[in-house]
Amino acid sequence: MSQVVVLTGGVGGAKLVLGLSQILSADSLTAIVNTGDDFRHLGLHVSPDIDTLLYTLAGKANAAQGWGREGESWAFMAALRELGGPDWFALGDGDMALHVWRSYLLAQGQSLSQVTASFAARWGIATRILPMSDQPVATMLETDRGRLEFQRYFVEQRCEPTVRSILFEGAAQAAPAPGVVDAILSADSILIAPSNPFLSVDPLLAVPALRSALQQTAAPIVAVSPLIGGKAVKGPTAKLMGELNMAVDNDSIARHYTGLIDAMLIDSGDRCDAPDIAIAHCATLMTTLSDKMRVAQAAIDLAGGLRA
Ligand code: FO1
Fold first, then answer.
1. For 74-98, how does the pLDDT look when each residue is reduced to its tens digit (9 = 90+)?
2. How far, in whole angstroms, is CA 273 from its chain's centroid?
3. Using an 8 Å Cβ cutoff, are 236 and 249 in contact?
């Protein structure tokens, strides 16, 4: 059985993983997930990218919102607000249950990988979901408003601050979670989801043993561009690229992944003139399930073509 590994974070990544899960057999897909967005909030461990993927694959995601659960109630937030608690980060009641239970299990000594696997099993998710690391890695942004934790920048300040640089605290000391290096080394294809390269993919690449596994693997590595017509589908990718003095185009994305990727899948109307990598086109906007399956199939075909 051909093994596919996908590096993912956020809602764009979850859409591709859902598409892949529909076209691949259950035991052939491993998702390695960004945990640089994780933080402690109200004493709880919140893992947004893992949760977005869990909710998406379990059919529980609030697709319109891009995070959290469909059909949430908000009694906890209303009660918290009444008590003068912080309301800049919204936690639905069902979502809260997950954060409380995960935090309890972590405090009992379970690892983030174990907790994630147990939630996935409870919800009948066949795709293997691995956090990039069981150790803490925190994405931090140097901005014109000072150094900000990722969620303060992203949610509280709505990505408004101008970003000067991005760092991943703890990444240099972090080990990949169990199974991550093996999955990469034994993969037949590796895909990089159309997640934000700077905020969602770079934290994974900052974990030294994960990056060197990607450099050692014989599998072709295919990135799906997060840009369509010079714009990001969602989130601050394009704004960030401007602030980091890059042209907002596929050449810049390819340059960012230089030495790592063998190919890039870009939108039908777009171009990429990067030397030394293969380029394939498809309509990369993922709205419906069939869109997600189409992009997943095009990425798999591109990798397969490179293997052949
Ligand atoms: N994003 C928001 O824009 N506002 C929120 O209040 C918010 C709450 C939230 C709670 C749990 C969770 O897992 C994710 C949440 N997100 C929220 C999304 C999250 O900040 C980002 O989508 C990711 O970290 C970026 O991929």
1. 999 999 999 999 999 999 999 999 9
2. 26
3. no
pTM for the structure as a whole: 0.98
Atom of ligand 1 nearest to the CA of 90: 6
Q: Three-class SS of residue 11?
A: helix
**Ligand 1 near 48 CB (within 6 A):** yes
Residue pair 262/222 in contact by the 8 Å Cβ criterion: yes
- Can you read off the two tokens belonging to residue 219? 């599998």
Rounded (5°) CA angle 139-253-234: 65
CA distance 70 to 58: 11
**If you compute the radius of gyration of the chain from its CA atoms, what whole number of angstroms results?**
18
Give CA–CA dist 140/283, Å, rounded: 33
Query: By three-state DSSP, how is residue 153 classified?
Result: helix
C-alpha 104: how far from chain center: 24
Q: Is the CB of 202 under 6 A from ligand 1?
A: no
- Ligand 1 atom with the smallest distance to the CA of 92 is 10
- How confident is the model over 144-203, as pLDDT tens digits? 999 999 999 999 999 999 999 999 999 999 999 999 999 999 999 999 999 999 999 999
Exposure pattern of 100-109 as b/e (b: 16+ CB <10 Å)?
Answer: bebbebbeee
Residue 243's identity, in one-letter code, is: E
Tell me the fold of 4-307: Rossmann fold (3.40.50)
Q: Which residue has a Cα nearest atom 4 of ligand 1? A: 155
* Euclidean distance between CA atoms 6 and 20, whole angstroms: 9
Q: Which two tokens stand for residue 258?
A: 């230089």
Q: Is 49 in the pocket of ligand 1 (CB under 6 A)?
A: yes
Strands (E), 173-277: 189-192, 221-224, 227-228, 231-232, 263-267
Atom 13, ligand 1: residue with shortest CA distance = 48
Closest approach atom of ligand 1 to CA 88: 6
Residue 26 Cα to ligand 1 midpoint, Å, equals 28
237: tokens are: 């990718």
**CB distance 263 to 306 below 8 Å:** yes
